[in-house]
Specification:
This protein is mainly alpha-helical. The chain has one domain: Orthogonal Bundle (Non-ribosomal Peptide Synthetase Peptidyl Carrier Protein, Chain A), CATH 1.10.1200. Strands 1-2 form a two-stranded antiparallel sheet. A hairpin with an 8-residue loop joins strand 1 and strand 2. Helix 2 packs across helix 3. The longest helix is centred in the N-terminal third of the chain and has 35 residues. It holds the Pfam family MscL. Homopentamer. InterPro entries: Mechanosensitive_channel_CS (IPR019823), MS_channel (IPR001185), MSC/AndL (IPR037673), MscL_channel (IPR036019).
Length: 135
């Protein structure tokens, strides 16, 4: 089998397509969470802390000189990224927890007893015939 045919077979599998959809949705979800944290959560927290804008929090290691930009440690952006991560991790945790509980309910649901086999049906008929003969 050629390399192209192997790749087509690999890409056509359902798991690969599901994974691609998951990655795309995950990237979009990440952008939503980043906006939620940066635009909705952090401004009130900054206001509570005395009007601090977290995106501006940084330690300047070297000031800008001419065309050379300043060297800074932007720990405010890092704090926002950590909060983004925590929200995404919590959302994934809750989603997995919901899926797990649904699977447990499916497993816990009693299944119908298996239908009798042909042999069992024949034996039941013989038993019933013997009962009617004895009466």
């Amino acid at each position: 089998m050629s390399l192209i045919q192997e790749f087509k077979a690999f890409a056509a599998r359902g798991n690969v397509i599901d994974m691609a959809v998951g990655i795309i949705i995950g990237a979009a979800f990440g952008k939503i969470v980043s906006s939620f944290v940066g635009d909705i959560i952090m401004p009130p927290i900054g206001l509570l802390l005395g009007g601090v804008d977290f995106s501006d929090l940084a330690i300047t290691l070297q000031a800008a000189q001419g065309e050379t930009p300043a060297v800074v440690i932007a720990y405010g952006k890092f704090i926002q990224t950590v909060i983004d991560f925590l929200i995404i991790a919590f959302a994934i945790f809750m989603g997995l927890k919901a899926i797990t509980s649904l699977k447990r309910k499916e497993e816990a649901a009693p299944s119908a007893p298996p239908a009798p086999t042909k042999d069992q049906e024949l034996l039941a008929e013989i038993r019933d015939l013997l009962k009617t003969k004895q009466e």
